Amino acid sequence: MKEIKISQEFKNQTIRAVLSIILFVIIYLLMLVLAVGLTAFCVYTGVMLIVIKPMIITLALGIGLASLGVLVLFFLLKFIFKSHKVDRSHLTEIKKADEPKLFKMIDDIIKEVGTDFPKKVYLSSDVNASVFYDSSFWSMLFPIKKNLQIGLGLVNTVTQSELKAILSHEFGHFSQKTMKVGSYVYNVNQVIFNLLVDNEAYDELLQKWANASGYFSIFVVIAFKIIEGIKWVLKQVYDVVNKSYMALSREMEFHADEIAANVTGYEPLKDSLLRLHLTDYSFNSVLSFYDKKIADNLKSDNIYNDHLFVTNFLAKESNIQLNNNLPQVSEKDLNKFNKSKLVIKDQWASHPSTEDRVKMLEKTGLSQTNPNNEPANLLFTDIEKTQNEITQKIFTNVVYSGECSTLPVEGFQSYFKEDYLKNTFSKIYNSYYDIKNPLFFDVQHIEYNTEHAQLEDLFSQNKVDEVYTAVSLQSDIELIKQISDKTLDVKTFDYEGIKYFKQDCQALLSKLKKELEILNEKIRSNDIEIFKYFKSKEQKANLNPLLENLYIHFFNFDKEFDTKYDVYIQLSIELQFTSYTTPFEQIRANFNKIEPLEKRLKKGITEILESQDYQVELTKEIKENFELYLSKKWQYFGIDTYENDNLQMLFSAVNNYAFLLSRGYFLTKQKLLNYQVELINTMKNNN
């Protein structure tokens, strides 16, 4: 393989990443030296205070003062005592004797790329492949051998050429000396994470020391203030180190992609990248399906048969062509509904966007020769056995209430299709309603004496594009607002190919809001025409006037939804304190504070139990939880501990309330849209 030149941008980002790590080391050492100096001063002054005037008060003050420096110094050094264990229980190691064909492919790639064989090769369950290594203090000083992880979900949905391209990309990382920078960044992040976040034990130590004496508490407060300052500095350093490394990481991805293109041509990696989102979504859909089947004591023998079915089923539903029994996702498919004109450089992204990667791959001009389009699964000696073993590992920790049975592939497919249809809208709508709702209009004051549009015009691609343009425009407006309000740290951005600065936001927002207002009015007009169309069908079929009532019911539900859902949002915010160490009196005060919200929650739950809108989704378990929660006023905190059972019941009630509200909204909308489909079918049958 020809030598691939490192781009100037790659070199620049490497230098920036290394300099940012050096900056962290300098700042940390400076804080450490100051902390040692503070400790020495506090201990010396505390001892002298006791020596000069030995009294109970001076003894307490002296010890408290000495502890001030020790507490600050210990805070900066506590990460040394923290051990880091890498959990590999989800991985399955394989060797050459197990999978000779796969290892032959790996050997061939290594020879072409010119790198070392991985230390170990592992299989995982997911839709991914990656390089990882044991990163520790010593990995920053000595060469480390990298491990290769291959996800069976990935193998399940690629051809052999595509898998070779993906592994070539990963071995491209093997050859990158800049991965050493990753080891440094990893360890820097471990230190910063320990100091910024992993403080539960340290906070308890501070609390106990402060409770030991009122004099000690004075110095604990001072130590706390100093530590808050240290945390602020570390947060700034964290941003610099990681933004620099993320920029380098993106360049490393481009470089590894070019290596893969040199091995297989660019097409196999391009095709697999474009398909990745769909296959990953499909895999998670299968996992979610079986998560819901835990109550029914059902699991899968081979989750990968289900995964391939869902991938191809969803592709067909989205009119994506299949080749070699795999979806051929195009860039047009990937961005079918993305109408955003806003481009913000994501400084925190570790990978470039799929579109950018595809663009850079195509620039190589390295086309594939003699592609192997056979399934990558055929590289395995006994793929079904391997898939069964990994599937078993996925379900290992799931707890079932009774004897568990496996769901045959045919049963899964039937259930999945049924669930899919229950949670989607008819294809006649052409995705018009997938992410929008009928916009409000006065149903009872619509005139019917105009000529009605045709169904294909009401849900034409042009009308659907208007909907998705409005959704993207609303999203763009929200993001630009965040930039303007400085809640989103962005200095410049592009809109319609024009560069804007923070000070330009207000003028741009004014322009975009007017555009959105005009566009929403066009969509509202079309919604009215849709209503007219189906109203005329209802009248011609001499049916009872149900359509108006369905629209009125939906608009009323829509009007009240935000107010009702706000109870869930507010309670979720107010209950966050239960996840942190909080003084007892503050805990009691916090629970008193949420009492008005609990009253609103109980009122909302009562309405749900009495309404017909939620009965389909109201399971026995949810109903029992609601009835128990409504039965009395519950206490969530005792003398010094939480009443965990009561607290769990509250969280379940809050989450079930939010779930049912959302499902009720969807079902109300679906009932309206399904009725409109019934009107069309009725007219067809009558004709």
Describe the fold and architecture.
- With 687 residues, the protein is mainly alpha-helical.
- It has 22 helices and 11 strands.
- The chain has helices at residues 8-52, 56-77, 100-113, 152-155, 160-174, 179-196, 200-212, 214-264, 266-292, 303-317, 331-334, 354-364, 383-395, 409-422, 455-458, 461-484, 505-540, 546-574, 584-593, 595-610, 620-630, 644-686; strands at residues 92-94, 121-124, 129-132, 147-151, 298-299, 322-323, 326-327, 342-343, 405-406, 492-495, 498-501.
- The strands form 4 sheets. It has a 4-stranded mixed sheet with strand order 1-2-4-3. It has a 3-stranded antiparallel sheet with strand order 8-10-11, with no helix packed on it. A two-stranded parallel sheet has the order 5-9.
- The protein is globular.
- It starts with 7 loop residues before the first helix and ends with a helix.
- 27% of the residues are buried.
